[in-house]
Hints:
Elements: H1 3-27, H2 29-36, H3 40-47, H4 51-58, H5 72-79, H6 89-107
Amino acid sequence: xxxxxxxxxxxxxxxxxxxxxxxxxxxxxxxxxxxxxxxxxxxxxxxxxxxxxxxxxxxxxxxxxxxxxxxxxxxxxxxxxxxxxxxxxxxxxxxxxxxxxxxxxxxx
Length: 108
């Protein structure tokens, strides 16, 4: 993958993320704050962006979204590579979500 292709992929990801974020925020702001891991101020700003503003922001060569999963335990739960006492996919994903939600609360 060359630099131009990487830049285009980042722009596409930014555009997709901003459009998705705006839709989720407008539909249910409280859920958006949790799912996107953003502040209320950021949500308000994203909700008010015009299509032209979204396109301009998306064209940044820097990826706007980031992984919130930053430890081995959560990655292990999400990828089923961590041995657990419960062999239930839904329970394992719920456990990972609870851990991530707790980290989001600490960041605020």
